[in-house]
Inverse folding.
């Protein structure tokens, strides 16, 4: 089985973003490391400030881990939040609604979550960090 896990880059606010995601997904960090944790001998590509997040992983389901870091100098200018969306499918409509509402706090609702003509309960939101999320629940009617 091949599993795709999203890796998000932030400009200094990775910790804030992942604390938000931790509350939304009701999960705990599997790992959180800072640039200061990188051994001096291996700091070659990591020139950012000590308190910035070098890597964080947050399991959001049994098969998916959301990962991220603060941009290292090697990634500057190569990341855009406008060219992708993270898609979440839930087992319960109530969970889709909860995730949508939680992710929309201080964000922007692009498409309100609602029943669609193709039988999904579906909506799109950009969270307060600019990450686009597509939330859906596949109803039995579709």
């Amino acid at each position: 089985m091949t599993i795709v896990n999203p890796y998000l880059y932030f400009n200094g606010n990775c910790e804030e973003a992942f604390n938000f995601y931790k509350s939304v997904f009701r999960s705990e960090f599997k790992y959180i490391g800072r640039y200061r944790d990188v051994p001096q001998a291996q700091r070659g590509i990591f020139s950012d400030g000590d308190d910035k997040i070098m890597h964080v992983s947050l399991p959001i389901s049994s098969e998916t881990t959301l990962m991220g870091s603060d941009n290292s100098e090697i990634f500057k200018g190569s990341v855009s939040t406008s060219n992708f969306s993270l898609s979440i499918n839930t087992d319960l409509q109530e969970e889709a609604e909860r995730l949508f509402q939680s992710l929309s706090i201080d964000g922007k609702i692009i498409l309100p979550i609602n029943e669609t003509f193709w039988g999904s309960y579906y909506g799109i939101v950009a969270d307060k960090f600019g990450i686009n999320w597509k939330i859906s629940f596949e109803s039995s009617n579709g």
The domain at 7-75 is CATH 3.10.180.10 (2,3-Dihydroxybiphenyl 1,2-Dioxygenase; domain 1). The mean pLDDT is 87. The radius of gyration is 17 Å. The chain has two domains: 7-75, 86-138.
